[in-house]
User: Which sequence fits this backbone?
């Protein structure tokens, strides 16, 4: 799978010597395992005062931001390396529900009310104050 990367990351990767294909390594110079990298990343977050954050959180953030800028389930799948929309739909479902609710209310308002807003009557009466207390 070929995955495009953002220009800022490409600039950093261009600084890595071509003979060092693995550049995320342990203190012993060995490649991280997935779990080992996750633990290392969490430790760095904790040291920075960012308790409860993880490398997996970056993937979730990418998917959330992608959904917010209107990426499709298929685009999110490709970016995250997923094989199905099962997980990506988690991120697009809320966005779609909010958009559909706004669209539906606009259509209902236009069809039923002629898209006219109704303003409340102006009164000098304060909220919660009885009429004879003015």
Assistant:
């Amino acid at each position: 799978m070929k995955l495009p990367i953002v220009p800022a990351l490409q600039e950093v990767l261009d600084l890595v010597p071509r003979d060092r294909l693995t550049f995320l390594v342990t203190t012993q110079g060995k490649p991280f395992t997935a779990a080992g990298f996750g633990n290392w990343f969490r430790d760095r977050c904790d040291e920075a005062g960012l308790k409860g954050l993880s490398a997996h959180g970056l993937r979730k953030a990418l998917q959330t931001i992608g959904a917010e800028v209107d990426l499709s389930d298929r685009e999110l799948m490709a970016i995250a390396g997923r094989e199905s929309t099962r997980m990506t739909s988690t991120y697009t479902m809320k966005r779609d529900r909010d958009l559909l609710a706004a669209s539906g209310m606009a259509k209902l308002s236009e069809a039923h009310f002629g898209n006219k807003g109704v303003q409340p009557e102006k009164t000098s009466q304060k909220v919660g104050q009885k009429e004879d207390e003015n």
The longest helix spans residues 88-113.
